[in-house]
# Entry
Amino acid sequence: MMQVKIVVRVSMSDKKSRSKALKICVGIWGVESAALSGAEKDQVVVVGESIDAVELTRQLRKGVAHAELVSVGEDKKEDTNKPAAAVVTPANATPVVWSYLPHYVGYNSYPIYESSSSDSCTIM
# Structure
């Protein structure tokens, strides 16, 4: 799937409204990242897959203040054509195994004694 970049201008005056706008943006399905941009930090840039721009704008209008959809387009990254670097491990490296004893709160290990006589009471 392709990455979508949406820019929405929201009238935000204080830090609380900016925080609320970012919280609303991240809560929408498909959003991978959200950031503030612009000279006055009045634009919200949202990147993700298959984001509904109209729903994003509607939620921002409902939760924060007036919102205006500035642009919707494909997110262009320079690193898309470069292959991922392969992880090289030496052949003689031994894997590290971490072993921890289980820690159970409220559980003490007491010895259990079994009696071989069958005439004793099973309850005690």
